[in-house]
Each structure stands twice: as C-alpha cells, then as structure tokens.
Amino acid sequence: MDTKKILVAVDGSEHSNKILEKAVEYATLLKAGVLLVYCHRKFPAILGQPYRDHEISHTISEAEKLIKPFREYLDGHNIYVEERLMEEPAGRVIPEVARIEACELIIMGSRGLTNIASLIIGSVTNRVLQTSPCSVLVVR
Length: 140
Hints:
The chain is α/β, with parallel strands linked by helices. The chain has five helices and five strands.
C-alpha cells in the first residue's frame, strides 16, 4: 500500500462497528487505506504435535471469521484494506505494527478495565497511547 495508512484495531465486539464508522470517515478525509489489525490469543507453547498445529489452525480460522465482516464493510465503502492477524499482547503489537507500516493514525476503542486492574496491568488503550509512533483516536 503506497498511500497513507490508518491502523484500525478491532476485537470483534459490537463496539468495533463504531470504530469502523470512524475509520471510513478518516480514511475518506485522508485518502488513506486501512490496515485492519486483530490480536488473537497466544498459541499454546507446550502442546505437542499434532495438537499444537490443530490449535494454531483453529485460532487462525476463528480470527479470519471474526475479521471478515470488517473487511467486507470497508470494501463496501471502496476503501483499500489490508489485514494483519497478530498474536497477543495487543498493547505491544499495535504500536509495533503502526511503526513498521508507517501508519498516519491508529483508531481503536476504549476498553473498560476496572480502576484497580488498570493500575496493576494497564489497559491496551493506555499502552498504545503511551507507546504509539503516531496519533491515536480512541472511539467511545
């Protein structure tokens, strides 16, 4: 993709639809393509063969099913889209992908951890805000 890029982080929740609406709006304004990023759970490290391969295949298949309607939505708005299915942790992966892909903007949702949990482990959104190489639009 030689055009400007907007990284759009989705998690499959209903809130992701609001994120996509903003992505269409900003992609149109910036004449940019969208890089859809979904961070799936980690692959099991200690599972033996062929169980590990089966688990990896299942995880990727589920991730592809999850991201398909988002891709179709963007295609329906004539927005160029690429996708990246990445392994967690999302808070580390999202800024890294934005840096590698030279994205202009990250669009993501705010997630509701409790105040205590946020203090202990931090939220994905907070981590992305702190480490992102570009501007971040948080959609509520």
